[in-house]
Amino acid sequence: MRHKDPELMKRIQAFAEDFYFEEGRSPSTAEIGKAIGIAKGTAHRYLVEMSEKGQIDYDGKTIETEKIRRLSPTSRAEIFTGAIPCGPLETVEASADEYAKLPTAIFGSGDFYIIRTAGDSMINAGIESGDLVVVEKRCDAEPGEIVVALHENANTLKRLGYDKKRKCCKLIPENNSMEPIYVRDVVIQGVARFIIKAL
Fold first, then answer.
1. Which domains does the chain have, with CATH numbers?
2. What's the pLDDT tens digit per position in 155-186?
3. Pairing mode, if any, of strands 112-118 and 74-85?
């Protein structure tokens, strides 16, 4: 690979950062090329080398720098229009067909999705039917955390626990009239981080 001009690298990085904060997305190689005065293929080669040098993170589409990570005002979250139930386990056909921007000053940075709850099994935790729950995408959780759990092709929102006597996990409702669900095979789909109350 030919030697790359360090000054041109700085110009590309500065343009990518300015573009991100103005447009809310990374510029394409064509947009970089037009702004900097180089071919888009050249822009791509520069981005690849800058990524290899650790100056930026570049996955072929998204450009991320330390400044973007530090000052980015929003995180992107998938919104599931189908409801994740707070009642008994049941299959939910849900697909993310909407997206929302979450202020990092409030929600922090992370990989999130948003679900609308249904049912009253989590009312003692302050989660009522119709509320929006911001969930961090995770495949693990600590006992006591509220999780979206998948078991036998069904998902539910419950507090995670462990039953030493039965030697299995339990999904605990926050409603005194309901009993825990004991499961030996459960997949964690995320951990609840924030509740946005329904109007």
1. 6-71 (1.10.10.10), 74-196 (2.10.109.10)
2. 889 999 999 999 999 999 999 999 999 998 88
3. parallel
